[in-house]
Diguanylate cyclase (GGDEF)-like protein (Lysobacter niastensis), 946 residues
Amino acid sequence: MARTLQQTLPDGSHVAVGWHDGANGSRGSVSGDAGAGMPQLAEQLLRGGDAAEHPQRLVTAWTFADGGRAAIAAWSAEPLPPASREAWVTMAQRLVAAELAVSRAQARVESLEKSERLQQALYEIADLAGSDLEMADMLGRIHGVVGGLMYAENFYIVLYDDARDSMRFLYFADRIDTYVAEPDRELHAADMPNSLTLALLRHGDPLIGCSEDIRERLGIISDTTHGPDARDWLGVPMRRDDRVCGAVVVQSYDRAGIYGDEERALLVFVAQHILTALDRFRAREELERRVEERTQALQLSNRDLQAEIIERQRAERLQRALFRIAELSITSETLERFYTQVHDVVGELLYARNFYIALLTEDAERLEFPYSVDERDPVRHSRKLGSGLTEYVIGQGRPLLADRHRISMLEAQGLLRSRGSLAHCWLGVPLFRNEAVVGVIAVQSYSAAISFSLRDQELLTFVAHHISIGLARKQAQDRLLAAHTELEQRVTSRTRELAETNAELLAQISERLRAEQQLTHQAWHDSLTGLPNRAQLLDRLNGAIERVKGDKGGLFAVLFLDLDRFKLVNDSVGHAAGDELLIEAGRRIVSAVRADDTVARLGGDEFAILVEDVDHLHAVEELAQRILAELGEPCWIAGREVFPSASIGIAAWHPRYRSGAEMLRDADAAMYRAKSTGRDRCAVFDEAMREEAMRILDLEADLRRAINGDGFVAFYQPIVRLDDRKVIGHEALLRWRHERRGLLLPAEFIGLGEDSGLIEEVDWLLYAQAIEHLAHDKGGGYISVNVSPRHFLANDFADRLLRMIDRAGADPHRLRIEITEVALLDDVPRALRMLRTLRSHGVLAQLDDFGTGFSALSYLHRFPIECLKIDQSFVAGLIGETQPESVAVVRAIQALAGTLGIHTIGEGVETEAQRIALRELGCTYGQGFLFGQPAEVAPKLVALTR
């Protein structure tokens, strides 16, 4: 512009132009040649100064409407006439004003375009936050948006936790640095003190410049482990409520000075929108999680309703079965027909494919089997009383539910000896006539997938009572008919006996040969899959150990595999489908391993693989991954597509192992580690797992020492009258004062105590302390102690407890025992005798956690129960969403207690509202934190008034 104006003046003239932009406060540079001091004069005019008049000097300065200012200073080589001077100045002003208008218009266009790009970028970031993209995809798209605003080829986002002084890299993209972001990995400041990113987060303000300059400014030592240096580096923090919670960084390795104040301001603005996008993304994930939790809660509620419907249907089937049995005793033409129809009735209630009825002869010296249907033992012959399972039930006079392990235990104790094919699960209940055992009704299963439960035992016991009545009636009818036909049958039977004896001898010879072959195969193979079983695996493991020790080298490993969520298949589509899945799983495992590897089924959904002659542990892990991939392929089971998975534990050979059982144990422990970390993966047994096992051994040793010392103490929680909160008794609760870990609650050691059997001794220590406390306290209140089913059903429990009370000189009327419904129903005659013995000496019984068990109401009135303790789950539900259901349950319990003439105690009372609700429903007493925490020394007991 200055050169253009210079051309309008005589040769040798000098022109300078300058301006000050009022729109943004920036000052334009003065342009023109330096001759005659014109640039300095133009600068002076811009600042508001004046210039002396001169015939060869042409000057002017003016102010725009927006506050901007412009100035022109010229030196003409020749003096100009006044008119020419005025015309030239006017022309120069117009030219400069027009040029400045064009420049400003272009600047506004560029600013609008830049604002539009920024606004579009923010819209894209907001849209990405609300999309269904995964976090990594969303952050990648945000990187692309930032790259459209500035140079961002090297870009990363980091989150910062100022409380823990740690950070996590959510996203990292760099053309030189190979670091891979791990969003879930937490990096602590102590592990990376020289990180430039950590310095930015602690500094709290944007940082710009080359890496070396920034480190020098912040006093940070150069550390190449944090990536290469950048020639230009720009980092801005992300803030939430004035707290730094992260940062966004861009950098250039090739060019310096590409980031300036404009890029810094732009990135600060974009960073806050990125933080908003991350917050929205997390909020959406949290909402989805809550929706999922609510969905699961509704599913659980639906399952509970379905279970209630099933229970009602079961009760209806049971009622129909009893009516049918009563009808069959009258309408059946023969006893054989009666037995067959009874079998059909039982088969509608439980698994009864293998079913028989055994009866004692009149002289009670032989056992007859008038009816038997069995997959493996088609014929059961009459025999003298011996030591079989049937004779054991007759001798004990109570039901027996035993799996293969328990049968082996009873045989080892010399209590019985199994006859016939060995059942996987056996259930037998006695048949009574006038309170005398006359026979047994039994069902059994030969498959590991089918087992009987206590509910089945109770059901069969109930049905057996009605079968006994029907059988007695039918036998009386058949005896009358048999008396008329006995003479005719004798001749026929004698002739038939000889033929049957010969046939029986031949059948027994063939059966024994077949049984011998079958037993040999069963001893080493799994009956369902045909794979080697645990015994064969352990034999091969021990052989591998001996070979390795003999060769002084080599490596082998054992893999312990457990199918994930296998119980869900059994519960949803049935045990037959579960067996089908186990067979398919065994086939897939065999197809995935080498030909020389041993695949065994240990039982249930557990498999094991012995891998020999491997070069290194990595090859074993690759084999485990191959097995998991093979198992993970979908398959069709019972018409449904199933996606099975498994958890695998690996134990490699180490000289410390003395037997295969030890290696299998460690592989089992590693499998549980894999299952606990998410399933569908493998884990190798390491020293950490070994240390955990040693910790459990140490705790067991501490438990034994505490039993011999005074480590276990009784804490007492008050039981009060709800009306006036008067204490009427205390419940004695177990605590362990550990010499190093302090006071421990039962939950921290009860499982170990039950596994080791030491908990019984601990319980008797608690009983002794409670009784000793009663002996020294002369008040009238009582103390209650918890008695497990194992204690309660012991033959000498009552005598031992009463002797302890007598030795301490305590009043037995002030002692209560708390038992559960399971203890009552496990052996009804014994439980009844036990309660009557204790009650006759003054020790009363309370039923604990009432309403959570089987609740056999038909039996409850037979037992001398002094009190029902309402479970705390119902008390907690009296306030809140489940109030209607809990109120209905508590009201029903109160009605039952009132009918039986006993009182109730509400457990777990923690609020005044719960106390009022219980009192209004008729509950007399309560116990919980509202009335007092458990304490080592109970307050003075007071007399119980009712």
